Amino acid sequence: MSRVYNFSAGPAVLPEEVLSEAAAEMMDYNGTGMSVMEMSHRSQAFQEIIDTAEADLRELMNIPDNYKVLFLQGGASQQFAMIPMNLMKHGEADYIVTGQWAKKAWQEAQKYGKANKIATSEDKTFSYIPDCSDLPISENADYVYICENNTIYGTKYKELPNTKGKILVSDVSSCFLSEPVDVSKYGIIYGGVQKNIGPAGVVIVIIREDLISDDVLEGTPTMLKYKTHADAGSLYNTPPAYGIYICGKVFKWLKKQGGLEAMKERNEKKAKLLYDYLDESRLFKGTVEKKDRSLMNVPFVTGDKELDAKFVKEAKEAGLENLKGHRTVGGMRASIYNAMPYEGVESLVTFMKKFEEANL
Ligand code: PLP
């Protein structure tokens, strides 16, 4: 077996322990004589899987009792519609547009009501997080929406915006469980799991109970109502059962690592190694304002497209995969999620140093 260091932005690297445990259980999960893939979602064995997953996630994130945890489908993108359909009671919401995903959410919300773009960093290719200490929050806004970690551009909010009492809704797809968060500051925290938690196909929504009701926009499909899923314990219809099972294993792995404080420390150490090198390199440079740098996604460029392409090709040959930057930014991007070991980042930096020497 040969594993590469996989720097993909998502779907992304998962802990090897989780993968091998799942492989060992593939033919016979816990004495059931079948794989979780083959199991009824109404079985006791699966009920235990989803209950344990929820309990472990609650413990990891210290989720207060007045929040529901929902395991849904449709990816993070489906939430771009579900959020306004369920929350826009006054037909208005405020969006902070810090990248493509926030922009898509803002554009989708315009289908359902008045979606105001109250701040953006598009003027500088989303390379920073705008000042959010005194935003022009709309009086009638039902919520303020952010994308907390911008996967494509590599920026992250270091402080949450001052929403002036309005409900905060946050897409944490690419920073989920990478560090502790205070759940009580949010109305909704949600994310696709395919970056930091599990396989594509599951989206986790953590939602304050008072935001769940039948009072949704007219015509909202049953499947797109939070209440449908909250009332049914995420088992209204067949859930993405295998994906939830893997998420559960990742939660156990995170607990074993020491929880989110420990992950934060680890992630800071990994990111520092790469950022420190970028700051001293004469060939490569980071593309993001230092104060807003993400711990998870690190874009960088040489400034020469051909050299960038050569780097990506040679890195791949050296077992460092998926370093090509997003098509809208160019250059390179190293995604260094929870499951990327320190040694992976070390290998990358060593390779970059060699490449710099050979190509300057
Ligand atoms: N939000 C963020 C921050 C993302 O990085 C992505 C995907 O990369 C999405 C939303 C869209 O996720 P999905 O493909 O699950 O709809």
Automatic annotation (TrEMBL):
Residue(s) carrying N6-(pyridoxal phosphate)lysine: 195
Cited Gene3D superfamilies: Aspartate Aminotransferase, domain 1 (3.90.1150.10), Type I PLP-dependent aspartate aminotransferase-like (Major domain) (3.40.640.10)
Pathway the protein contributes to: Amino-acid biosynthesis; L-serine biosynthesis; L-serine from 3-phospho-D-glycerate: step 2/3
Occurrences of domain Aminotransferase class V (ranges): 4-348
Role description: Catalyzes the reversible conversion of 3-phosphohydroxypyruvate to phosphoserine and of 3-hydroxy-2-oxo-4-phosphonooxybutanoate to phosphohydroxythreonine.
GO molecular function: O-phospho-L-serine:2-oxoglutarate aminotransferase activity
Main location: cytoplasm
Cofactor binding description: Binds 1 pyridoxal phosphate per subunit.
Record bears the keyword Transport: no
Protein name: Phosphoserine aminotransferase
EC number: 2.6.1.52
InterPro entries named among the record's database cross-references: Aminotrans_V_dom (IPR000192), Pser_aminoTfrase (IPR022278), PyrdxlP-dep_Trfase (IPR015424), PyrdxlP-dep_Trfase_major (IPR015421), PyrdxlP-dep_Trfase_small (IPR015422)
Species, as recorded: Dorea ammoniilytica
UniProt: L-glutamate binding residues: 42
Keyword field: Amino-acid biosynthesis, Aminotransferase, Cytoplasm, Pyridoxal phosphate, Serine biosynthesis, Transferase
Pfam families for this protein: Aminotran_5
Cofactor: pyridoxal 5'-phosphate
Gene: serC
